[in-house]
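Data card: per-record layout.
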Amino acid sequence: MAETFDPYEDEGTYDYYDEEATPRRRPRLLWGRIAALAGALVIAFMVGRASSGGDDSAELDRVRRELTAAQAEIDELETRLAEEETEPEVVTPAPSETAPESTEAQTYVVREGDTLRAIAMRFYGDPDLADLIAEENGITDPTELAVGQELIIPPAPE
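The structure for this 158-residue chain is written out next.
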């Protein structure tokens, strides 16, 4: 036969159910650890910020402006280079191909890269006659030729 169990009825309570006998739950240490970690991160951030030398945004802006200016200069130089490559090459004629000596003065517009000696070679076939062109135009310093300047080329001496 099967036995039946009667529930145990005790009017008293066991110690582990007694609130006074049960120790109070300590607060969980997890939140305290998280707060300590957050505090340490804030302190590390502040120390790193203070030791970085301050605000570098002004320096960064200056470098960006220099970069922009350098890029603009590169673009300009590339454009000039492309233009020079498409311009026909100026060939200085050999002495035998020089223009025939004329008895009248001529005018010549200075181009980039011209010198008095090269102009004398072109018109007279003799670079030593550069002084003649300088005298005619009142040039005391042959390095002061300006692009676009008009020169009077006197007739070749006989």
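Known properties of this structure: The radius of gyration is 48 Å. Strands lie at 106-109, 150-153.

See the next section for split statistics.
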